[in-house]
Amino acid sequence: MFSNRWRFGWDRYTEVDLFTDHNDTNAETLSQAIRAASEEPDADGSVLFGHLQGTVVGLRYYTGVVNSGEMVGLVRQPQNPYDRNAVMVANIYGNQVGHIKKELAAAMAYVMDNKLAKVEGVVHSGTKNKFTMPVMLSFWGKEEKKNTVIEMMARRGYKLNTGGIGQAAVFFFFQLKNAFDNLFEGLMESKDGEKEAAKSVGTPLLPHQKKALSWMCARENKSGLPPFWEKRGELYYNTLTCFSAKEIPERVRGGILADDMGLGKTLTTIALILTNFHNGKPLPVETCVSVTVLNLYFSITVWCEQHLFIIKWLFACYQEGQSSPLKARTKKQMPPKLEGIFISCLLFTLYAPGFQEDLDFAAALGGLISDTGFKKKKTSKKDLKARATLIICPLSVLSNWLDQFEQHVSANVKLNVYLYYGSDRNRSTKFLSSQDVVITTYNILSSDNGDKSPLHVVNWLRVVLDEGHIIRNPDTLMSKAVLRFKAQRRWILSGTPIQNSVKDLWMLLAFLHLKPFDVREWWNRVIQRPVTQGNKEGLQNLQTLVKCITLRRTKNSEVNGRPLVSLPEKTVCVEKVELSQAEREEYELARNEGRNTIGRYVSEGTVLSNYAHVLAILMRLRQLCCHPDLLAKTSTDLGAAATPAELRERLIEKLRMVLASGSDEECSVCLESVRLPVITHCAHVYCRPCIAQVISTEKETARCPLCRSEIKTSELVEFPQEEMGEENGTNSEKWRTSSKVQALMANLLRLRSEDNRIKCLVVSQFTRFLTILETPLREHGFSYVRLDGTMSLKKRTQVIQEFQSSADSSPVIMLLSLKAGGVGLNLTAASHVFLMDPAWNPATEEQCIDRCHRLGQKRKVCVTKFIVKDSVEENMVKIQKKKQDLLEKAFGSTNTDRKASRISDIKALMEL
DNA sequence: ACCGCCGGGTGCC
DNA sequence: ACCGCCGGGTGCC
After folding, report:
1. Quick one: A588 and A716 in the same domain?
2. Are residues A542 and A634 in the same domain?
3. Which nucleotides of chain B does any protein CB come within 7 A of?
4. How many angstroms separate the CA atoms of A350 and A406, rounded?
5. Looking at the predicted structure, is the pLDDT value of residue A149 above 90?
6. Exposed site from A283, A446, A498, A687, fewest CB < 10 Å?
7. Which nucleotide is nearest to A88 (CA to C1')?
């Protein structure tokens, strides 16, 4: 019988399958096939064409089983020797279940091979017999392919059931975003208790850091069931995919630490590395103490009679140790009886200077203590030899990691940290594996790609992705590289795990090997599509999933009723500024003019279609509040454009006007400040991805969210690249002051007279205003630096370093553009913040203030907001308050609400 | 495998 | 006996 297997090869002898355990090898290739099949371009714009009841045949030849309700994967098998149209059916873990019946397979093969549709299967009723079973197929694809596919299938006698397919509701990002904000909130409750860090961690941990450490250790050590798995009788059952397995599903060892910036993710990670080695023991590290002991041994043969026997014993052990494969470090725990001698030895070193180091002996001694003193438990399914933790971070924080290791690891502990960076980096895998920590950057990763890259050969104990949201795009080289690491434990550190949409999460879960969602198809079907279609259940599942693997605390979180971190007091005061006679006259003129125009729009009901103009009017007023010279000279009206080129020119001009001032223009789709701005033919500005999303969802019927004019992707106008970041020289022939400038200078001079080392942030949305402010600062001899969005990364870090320096010569003022820099910016050297002009979005202001009011701030922080009396600014502040209220109860607000509130905002601003 | 399909055996009722 | 019917053999692609 056994030989039949070979003789008959592909033949139909059932023995073949009974003898072969292809669960492992075949499942892997099938999984790969499914993965490959679903790694097609994003299925985002897909619509459901229809359903079809099909049949899976040949069940008896395969080992894969399917439960009622379980999803299955459909993979084309063009190489099948019996039928080149074959479509294989596999379960979630990639075990083959059977084939699609051949006539249906022939029809499907055409559709699948020509990428007309993606076909998905669900087995609704359980297996009635051993030979075939029904499968519900659904066809998904681009709207324009829909009819082709339906006709195609109909011609072969398969009528797609298109009934009951409702048009998916169009959900804008912000509605999801609200849900996401919630998604990552409150992930703190009832996690584990606190855990003390190993002794080698030199910095005492704060309570919330001990909690994080405890949670992280538990995530690495405990072997409970992963999310959505439960035990049902003898089987493990996945409640989402309805898949069940005999073996306990592999648990994700790791997760996402999504604490807010400044709560000490780095320190906690360092503590984790030192505290949780194999079997929950601390990382064995060399300590100077042990080295000293050996020095002693070699330097003095007879030192103290009462210790001689121990030294002899140690030496004996050392020799014995030579023959056993010992861990080459001193474990932190040592037998109590030895502690005495270690201390004695330490004391002795004070009297016996000039010893040579002998690391070999130290290493052996260390190994001996752990291996002979404490017998290791043989619990290892895992590779206990894995030692090194690989940390990948953006270049900008690399030095921070090195500093933090320096700072937080006890002085007497020697931790091997290798910086895998630069062209002469050590590529020896043996060397890398032997390190305690290897640090590298995402850039190195994308160049050090390929299977033979040293980073991909090493068996890591742990891989940590700092600022892990960097890999959210799965198409990048580094994302692909990150998935191929061999590691036992995987962590993602990120303050902002979701930036735009659910899609951002997939890469993170794939990196963590959260099965089955590491295969894109299952993720798309179970989470992404339900969620983007606004399915409550999908969102709930996502929430559960995230909750299981994420720890997130914000600066405002509380533990046992006490704030996580206590920051110095922060006071915010508003300083009302009176305009001068001349300024007031100019302002009133502009205001009346604008008020008339907007009033007309309001009564005509055309506010939203003239939105760009309304914004321009408001901008003009806001600029007048700061400084008369801020006014943009160019202000062409969008009249009837003669030619397309002319229209384009005018649109660009509009866009330039909105952007040039550096104001915080907000996209009406995502309600964030615009990224990659584009302007529509109706002159409304959006982020390109946001408006592209709207257009792709609504297709031909797409309309501008603000004015409902028809919009097309081809008609979106971008800002010409060469003009980006171009900063026109100020027309500073004759500089003049303004009331706001005066108010600021009065404050700065007063502060300097109190303490000339007080550092201030001076913040404006208008970069040109910052330029104007430079003149009086120079005149009064203030040393200042400037940070705005136009500066290169290198320049930025340099400026920040200068400003943060405590040297007497360091600048005391930073001119800061409101939007410049990421959230990570650390400007704790400043204790005073001057906000020169109110922002539309109060969160932007908060974020800016938080750059100095954050962990590390030692002084009280004083924030001054300058607001011009009787002006648009005062009204903006009122609306800000209202917006904040709205934001707090963010859920339930619909797009129409937002539009209505926008119109009423504008009316309020103009006091109409 | 409680079906369908195939092909050989068979042939009034 | 160029059909129908019966019953055994058989069975994914």
Report:
1. yes
2. no
3. 1
4. 25
5. yes
6. A446
7. C13
At A200 the pLDDT is 92
Average pLDDT, chain A: 77
Nucleotide closest to residue A131 (CA–C1') = B1
Distance CA A90, CA A35 (A): 12
The answer on A274 and A400 residing in a single domain is yes
For residue A195, the domain's CATH number is: 3.40.50.10810
Q: How far is the CA of A843 from the C1' of B4 (A)?
A: 70
**How many domains does one find in chain A?**
4
Using C1' positions and the CA of A58, the closest nucleotide is C12
CA A59 to C1' C1, in angstroms, rounded, equals 41
CA–CA separation, A907 and A595 (whole Å): 9
Give the nucleotide with minimal C1' distance to the Cα of A85.
C13
**Domain assignment of residue A713, yes or no:** yes
The nucleotide closest to A55 (CA, C1' atoms): C12
- Kindly give, in sequence order, each residue whose CB lies less than 8 Å from that of residue A388, ignoring residues fewer than 6 positions away: A432, A433, A434, A435, A436, A437, A438, A458, A460, A461
A209 lies in the same domain as A341: no
Q: In Å, what is the separation between the CA of A7 and the C1' of B6?
A: 28
Task: Measure, in angstroms, how far nucleotide B6 C1' is from residue A256 CA.
Answer: 61
Gap from A79 CA to B8 C1', Å: 36
Q: Distance, angstroms, CA A157 to C1' C1?
A: 36
Residue A704 is assigned to a structural domain of this protein: yes
A426 and A296 in one domain? no
Pair (A513, A590) in one structural domain: no
**In whole angstroms, how far apart are CA A205 and each of A196, A265, A275, A554, A798?**
8, 11, 12, 17, 30
Give the domain range for residue A464.
168-281+385-560
3-state secondary structure of A434: helix
Residues A141-157 have a mean pLDDT of: 93
- The Å distance, CA of A191 to C1' of C7, is 69
- Counting residues of chain A whose pLDDT is more than 90, the rounded percentage is 36
We report the CATH number of the domain holding residue A122 as 3.30.70.2330
* A408-452 pLDDT, tens digit each: 999 989 999 999 998 889 999 999 999 999 999 998 988 888 878
Looking at residues A630-642, what average pLDDT do you find? 54
Both tokens of A335, joined, read 């037998």
In the listed set A723, A743, A760, which residue is the last one of a domain according to the structure? Answer: A723
Output the distance from A827 CA to B13 C1' rounded to whole Å.
108
- Amino acid identity of residue A235, one-letter, is L
Is any atom of nucleic acid chain C found less than 7 Å from the CB of residue A635?
no
Strand C: positions under 7 A of a protein C-beta atom: 11-13
Per-range mean pLDDT, top range of A229-238, A376-385, A551-560: A229-238
Q: Which nucleotide is nearest to A106 (CA to C1')?
A: C13
**At A637, which CATH number?**
3.30.40.10
Q: What's the pLDDT at A280?
A: 87
Q: Which residues in chain A, range 32-61, keep a C-beta under 7 Å from any nucleic strand C atom?
A: 57-58, 61
Strands (DSSP E) found in A18-158: 47-57, 70-76, 87-90, 96-100, 118-123, 132-141
Distance A245 CA to C1 C1' (A): 58
The reply to whether A420 and A459 lie within a common domain is: yes
Confidence check: pLDDT of A19 > 80? no
Judged against a pLDDT cut of 70, whether residue A833 lies above it is answered with yes
- Name the nt closest to A84 by C-alpha to C1': C13
Domain endpoint, select from A560, A589, A605: A560
User: Is residue A129's beta carbon less than 7 angstroms from any atom in nucleic acid strand B?
Assistant: yes
Taking the C-alpha atoms of residue A22 and residue A1, their distance in angstroms, rounded to an integer, is: 18
Residue pLDDT, tens place only, A781-803: 999 999 987 777 678 878 988 99
Residue A549, SS3 per DSSP? helix
Identify whether A782 is part of a domain. no
Burial of A628 (0-12, 13-18, 19+ CB in 10 A): middle
Query: Any atom of strand C under 7 A from CB of A86?
Result: yes
Residue A572 lies in a domain: no
pLDDT of residue A566: 76
A132 C-beta less than 7 Å away from strand B: yes
Residues A328 and A419 in one domain: no
